[in-house]
Design goal:
Elements (H helix, E strand, L loop, with lengths): L16 H6 L4 E6 L5 H17 L2 E6 L6 H13 L4 E4 L8 H9 L3 E5 L11 E4 L2 H16 L1 H5 L3 E5 L6 H14 L17 E6 L4 H14 L5 E4 L2 H13 L8 E6 L2 H8 L5 E4 L2 H18 L12 E2 L3 E4 L8 E2 L1 H4 L6
Parallel strand pairs: 1-2, 1-3, 3-4, 4-5, 5-11, 6-7, 6-8, 8-9, 9-10, 12-13
Antiparallel strand pairs: 10-12
Amino acid sequence: MVAPAAAAIMIFGTAGLAQAQESEDILVGLITKTDTNPFFYKMREGAAAEAEKLGVQFQAFAGKYDGDNDTQVQAIENLISAGAAGLIIVASDTKAIVPTVQKARDAGLFVVAADTLLEPADAADASFATDNFKAGQLIGEWARQTLGPDDAQNATVAFIDAHESQPTVDVARDQGFMDGFGMDIKNPDRRGDEDDPRIVGHEMGEGSEVGGRDAMETLLQKNFDINVVYTINEPTAAGAWEALKSAGKDDGSVLMTSVDGGCPGVENVRDGVIGATAMQFPLEMAQAGVRAIVEHVRNGTMPEPTEGLEFTDTGVKLVTDQPVEGLTSITSSEALEECWG
């Protein structure tokens, strides 16, 4: 079996090699954090389909685990050596990857950041992402309104983030939740400097179910009275729920929130495991990234960021079966028509 980190997929357009040659043998690469998370699988699916539609070559690479910067560096090196026209990257370490991204740009590759902005954002030529701060705000405000003013003011809140390295997507969702919940976030570009007494702590779940369970167990040891949980993504939420269930706290006394909009996560909203999640659209991110690279190669076009943002916003929707006043949302049944994975 080829290791996930080394695996690459190549797809030619529907007219085969001849069409690819007519497209100047344009090669587009996609590098995701892993190839196991359904979010990244959907991105790969979308990028491959768009590459086929446009008649260009496509290769996909993935890290061995969420946070694996070294393998992402090697993937960029491979694409430079292959003469790629451009690449789309979902960075595991938004700072450490920048020198290698710059090497790719110096070699003439058009670099698109997807889902996770680089630090600084202009280290990439273009970015397509969810407004992750807004995604966090939506679930934070939902939790605050669901509890009501008095209970929200006296809540006991646990945060399960992704990595100690604080990638941009991780920080934005976390800080957005705090803002929506009514907490003073201090520096919005970093987490951990807040002094709100309602915060039990931040534990790292590495975006996985196992990590979510372990992190929740640690947080419950700090304060068993936790009644609100923020999670970086839905696999983390699923693991956190298992820990809550084992502790006998699956009785409706804990509000679980998350971000993703994958089909398993939406089903967990339907089943009452997750109270609210923020749905994002990985297919659109990946397709837009491929289009941006091909259009830039063919005619020099540069994507325009969304007004007021450093990236092109691919949208977010609040998913809950417990709607609150003033927040537009869709039900889990509606979300199952749009979910992925």
